[in-house]
Amino acid sequence: MPELPEVETIRRGLAARVEGRRLERLDILDPRFCAPAPPAELEAAVWGRRVSGLARRGKYLVWELEDGTGPGTVEPPEPLFLVLHLRMTGNLLLAAPGDPDEPPHLRVRFSLDSGDRVLFTDPRRFGTGVVLRGTDAREAYFAARLGVEPLHPGFTAEALRILAAGRRAPVKAFLLSQERIAGVGNIYADEALFRARIHPLRPVGSLRRPQLAALRDAVVESLEAGIDARGATIDDFRHPDGARGSFQHRFLVHRRAGEPCPACGGEIVKLRVAQRGTYVCERCQPRPRRPRGAGSRRAAVA
């Protein structure tokens, strides 16, 4: 699944070609993309609008569209937002005028007044799109789904401490919870926990202030490294021009089971945490101790 660095890479790759252009036509070829809203309704809402900006929130890509109201109106124009989530296998590819045939698994076509087309492809058909009218609707939509933005100044060690306080969930599960921290997925959680030297099974509420400070910094460093490498291509992710990301060549632990740890030389192992394949060096990231008496309690229950 594209995570924050991959979506930010897509945003940067498209922005220069779509911002300021008019969206002359939107063709939704797969009704599942916007269900339960009818495709014709979503298409009609955005046709002819100018793209005033392309933004990102967590793993969501946001097309900011100017209202089509003409000059001379008393009320300020109401912005419209087309919010996309790429899910597991979605990509946005840029096709210039005269480019060859469109790719397979095409679900949505954005046609701009420049002649460029932005093509949303998605083999597994999990990606979604929704239209939101006005900034209040946009803020409410994200407030119900997303927590703090990890590259925002508000993501501090103290903010992380408040979010983690009293929680017994494994820290890996905590990092994957989009309602807590927006945009971190499996790749960058593994990389951040290794950088912070924290085992993914450690209860997040048990972390001390220095560990939380290290984790905050490690999350930011891992995401910034991913953006610098223009994302990680393991399966489907591509840049808008079709190129692959390169962060997969810089992984410290993710997908490196059986290989030596880059810090201590010990073997990297694969675990299952929060129903996700998880990679860890248990020398550098010591496994949490089992609470005293836990084994006997489990035996008694059994």
Structural class: alpha+beta
Largest sheet: 8 strands, antiparallel
What do we call the CATH homologous superfamily of the largest domain? MutM-like, N-terminal
What are the segments in which pLDDT stays under 50 over at least 5 consecutive residues?
A: 70-74, 295-302
CATH topology name of the largest domain: N-terminal domain of MutM-like DNA repair proteins
CATH architecture of the largest domain: Alpha-Beta Barrel
Strand proportion, as a percent range, falls in 15-25%
Order of helices and strands: HEHEEEEEEEHHHHHEEH
Our count of helices gives: 8
Percent of residues in helices comes to 25-40%
Structural overview:
The structure is a single chain. With 302 residues, the chain is an alpha+beta fold. It folds into two domains: 4-143, Alpha-Beta Barrel (N-terminal domain of MutM-like DNA repair proteins), CATH 3.20.190; 157-280, Helicase, Ruva Protein, domain 3 (Orthogonal Bundle), CATH 1.10.8.50. Helix content is 28%, strand content 20%. The protein has eight helices and ten strands. Strands 5-7-6-1-2-3-4-8 form an eight-stranded antiparallel beta sheet. Strands 9-10 form a two-stranded antiparallel ribbon. The longest helix has 20 residues, at 209-228. The two termini are 38 Å apart. 35% of the residues are buried. Mean pLDDT is 92; it is low at 70-74 and 295-302.
